[in-house]
Design brief:
- It is a single chain.
- Strands 5-13-12-11-10-6-9 form a seven-stranded mixed β-sheet, sandwiched between helices. The protein has a five-stranded mixed β-sheet with strand order 2-14-15-18-17. Strands 1-16 form a two-stranded parallel sheet.
- The chain has helices at about 5-20, 20-25, 30-40, 40-60, 65-75, 75-85, 115-120, 145-155, 165-170, 180-190, 215-220, 235-240, 270-280, 305-310, 335-345, 345-350, 355-370, 375-385, 385-400, 440-450, 475-485, and strands at about 95, 100, 130, 135-140, 170-175, 195-200, 205, 210, 225, 245-250, 280-285, 315-320, 330-335, 405-415, 425-435, 455, 455-460, 460-465.
- Strand 7 and strand 8 form a beta hairpin.
- About 40% of the residues are buried.
- It has 21 helices and 18 strands.
- About 45% of the residues lie in helices and about 20% in strands.
- By secondary structure, it is α/β, with parallel strands linked by helices.
- The structure holds pyridoxal-5'-phosphate.
- Pyridoxal-5'-phosphate binds next to helix 10 and strand 11.
Length: about 475
Amino acid sequence: MHSEKTMKGTAKTDLFRKLPSVDELLREQGVAALVARHGSSPVTDATRTVLARLREEIASGLLDDASLGLALAGVNDAIEKQILEALRPSLRPVINATGVILHTNLGRAPLAESVFEHLSTTAGQFSNLEFDLEKGDRGQRDVHVDRLFRKLVASRGAFDTGSAEQEAQDTVSTIVVNNNAAAVLLALNTLAEGGEVIVSRGELVEIGGSFRIPDVMAKSGATLREVGTTNRTRIGDYERAITERTRLLLRVHRSNFEIKGFTEQASTAELVNLGRQRDVPVVEDLGSGALVDLQNFGINGEPNVLDSLRAGFDVVTYSGDKLLGGPQAGLISGRRDLVTRMRKNSLFRALRVDKLIYAALEATLLAYVKRDYDGIPTLKMMSLTKGEITARAEALVANVHSPNLQLEILDGESVIGGGAAPSSVLPTSLVAISCAGLSANELSVRLRGGSPPIIARVEQERVVLDLRTVFPDQDRVIATAVAGIAT
Ligand SMILES: *Cc1c(COP(=O)(O)O)cnc(C)c1O
């Protein structure tokens, strides 16, 4: 008599014997057809993977004679599925139902439609990225963004003296680097290497992902000269710290936090005047880089680039993919002589961006020039009223029919995210979902496991969806996915 253990062992050996070899499988008609379609090496790899999986399943006792027979009958399908999975890009679209508009982990700003048109006409071909078509000679890649930024500055009369248009043409330049961290590094290195930069102790910030002002300062070769205290810094503090070693006064926007209570900060006008008097440039690390007045969207306290330049900052650095709503980039706008020095710095060569980014930025800035704010998804999402979102939430709830699900509409708040406007929230309506027999966590895992994955918030043991950050044509996708979870 065999013990049960040995019997199982024998059975397993038999099962292993039933597995075809890779070569045998590749000679089979169905698999050969896959080779014709996908090429031999992906099919061989997939075949190996599928056989290895079956071997594992036999070893762990998951398959018996009958189920192995079924698995082998469907082996062609399994191989094809494996091929498609292996060839699927790892970077995939997701539905952002978190209500966080600039979600750094979800790629910050989604880009405007016009960006894709511009990319598709320029990126797949040669372009005049750095070629002056008039002179037939080498040109500068900055011109594509620089000219549009000047138009924006001019159209808003950022400079009050004389003809705004002319003034802007003469004085403001813009260059583009990889991100705002790079922009700050380039500005400090160019303007202050070997010298001192004065910064208020209330502005020695860390922005997510290890961007810290003292660290960037050290890397730039400039010396940080802290003044004032965490909560209060007066203009006199800056004034007393200026020596012949001073190269810059730096203001860092408190993008992702606030200081409240007994506080004081030198005003922009005071800083700018001091810089002028002592002939020291004043630079602002603005961060989020809005190009329109965000008060129109109910967001207070978030300065915009044009206002900063108008107020007299010599140079402003900001991100392309925060409130500007474009691709990841760092923009440096300001006094032409200073920006030209940055362009000539060899570090600029290391930080410069590709034609894809220029194309994306150019199309985004063109939308601003045309005042097509609805065309920029970030601005569009900010501008949605609670009423509009409620109507969509109600339609979604009406579209989900499942006895196991409970859907409810709640008042809630969306946030800007991306280290911008930390205390500004936008009123919204949330769809709260609960499902009999599933925890909120399990429910959110299932939503995330769908195709496309849906990223939701979990609040007070409930999954909540904020449609503010969902594109309207995705509402139906969500309704179908939610209904599917409970079945
Ligand atoms: C976001 C931010 C940065 C970093 O910008 P990235 O484009 O993410 O590199 C730097 N400074 C401030 C004030 C910011 O808000």
